[in-house]
Design a protein that fits this description.
The chain has about 180 residues and is of the alpha/beta class. It has four helices and six strands. The strands form two sheets. Strands 2-3-1-4 form a four-stranded mixed β-sheet. A two-stranded parallel sheet has the order 5-6. Strand 2 and strand 3 form a beta hairpin. The radius of gyration is 22 Å and the shape is flat. Bound molecules: guanosine-5'-triphosphate.
């Protein structure tokens, strides 16, 4: 029996649990009361092979989901990245592909162009570095990523404020009624 471990990734409310629950139960359950990370287990047979499947479903609201970057990335054999097609910012999360150990030229198996092409294909930023030998490139990649993330966070905050003020206007209209033009 093979053990297969998968992890879901994606921003808050993208529908990670909905996709997984649809797979596990064939049903769509609109709201999940869960506020913790979940590990689901299922036995299945694929291509005549019996498998023990484990799927890690992080909950964005729980503080423990922060471990997503520490544990599931090592733990999982495969990932499913879910984004919400009605949220453009969901596909704009900046990702840096970093080719490290550039100093090991004699042992190189992946050429720089290959890394760059992979990054381009997946809309990632790309940089080759040597943590052993160079500070500047690493510092500037962090700074670039942090600037992009700050821009994104600002967009999100602006959008929330805007939709918040729209709902406040709606609420005021509902309570006091729209003024009719006098005829
Ligand atoms: N219309 C529509 N709504 C969906 C779909 N999938 C999920 N939702 C809704 O999107 C919301 C978030 O879904 P979840 O599955 O809880 O999303 P999540 O990514 O697990 O959320 P977090 O755990 O908070 O990160 C819920 O209100 C779902 O009902 C879908 O395919 N279509």
């Amino acid at each position: 029996m093979n053990d297969i471990k998968l992890a879901l990734l994606g921003s808050e409310g993208a529908g990670k649990s909905a996709v997984l629950v649809r797979f596990l139960t064939r049903r769509f359950i609109g709201e999940y009361a869960s506020n913790a990370n979940s590990l689901y287990r299922k036995r299945l047979s694929i291509d005549g092979r019996q498998l023990n499947l484990e799927v890690f479903d992080p909950c964005s609201q729980s503080a423990e989901s922060r471990c997503i970057l520490e544990e599931p990335v090592d733990w999982a054999d495969g990932f499913i990245v879910v984004y919400n097609i009605s949220d453009r910012l969901d596909v704009g999360v900046p990702i840096y592909l970093v080719g490290n150990k550039q100093d090991l030229c004699h042992a190189r198996q992946v050429c720089e162009e290959e890394g760059r092409a992979l990054a381009q294909e997946n809309r990632c930023l790309f940089q080759e570095v040597s943590a052993a030998e160079n500070y500047q490139e690493i510092a500037s990649l962090f700074t670039t990523l942090i600037r992009l993330v700050m821009e994104q966070l600002k967009h999100r905050a602006d959008r929330r404020r805007y939709s918040g003020s729209k709902s406040m206007a709606k609420l005021i209209n509902n309570v006091f009624g729209k003024r009719r033009k006098s005829v």
